[in-house]
Amino acid sequence: MDIFKLLAIISPFVSAALGGLITYIFTIRGKRYDLLYQSKIPAFKELSLELTAFRNYCLGKVASDEGNEFSPYLEEGKGTLTHRTDIALSIAHNGIFFKPTSRQSVGELMNNMSMLCNIELGLAAGKEYGNLKENYFEMANKTSDLIEMLYKELNLG
């Protein structure tokens, strides 16, 4: 048999096998990304809810310092330490779904929250710190920036 006749017989089988293999590889990869996003979105929602609650708490404190007792964000009984614990638990449960830079940014925010925790403990002990509006407003902005960064990590923003 001539080589060209042999190639004419074999080439459709080789082409079909290669086409099937490439389709299989891309299908598996696509399913892997779908599964990742199915898990990543609830993780993002949980963490963003905790971050949003803290941001709203900070904005409520700013409103309180400005004398706006009718602020929708003003809440009693829950302090920075409680919010910090909620955020820490959320990132501990869902940290695997976030990039290392995002986990590091959440850690930095929690370190900054420690300062507010200490201030609130001092206030509870009767110490005077003056107007803390700037501190709470700065933390609200940092939290908003972190939420935006996490949103961009999902490739949605």
Describe this entry's structure for a reader.
- By secondary structure, the chain is mainly α.
- It contains four helices and no strands.
- Helix 1 packs antiparallel against helix 2 (80-94), helix 1 (3-65) packs antiparallel against helix 4 and helix 2 (80-94) runs antiparallel to helix 3.
- It is rod-shaped and about 100 Å long.
- The N and C termini lie far apart (61 Å).
- The model has no long low-confidence stretch (mean pLDDT 85).
Can you give the helix content as a percent range? over 70%
Largest sheet: none
The end-to-end span amounts to 61 Å
Q: How many helices does DSSP assign?
A: 4
Topology order in helix (H) and strand (E) letters: HHHH
Radius of gyration: 26 Å
Shape: rod-shaped
Overall mean confidence score, pLDDT: 85
| Helix/sheet category | mainly alpha
Q: What low-confidence regions span 5 or more consecutive residues with pLDDT below 50?
A: none
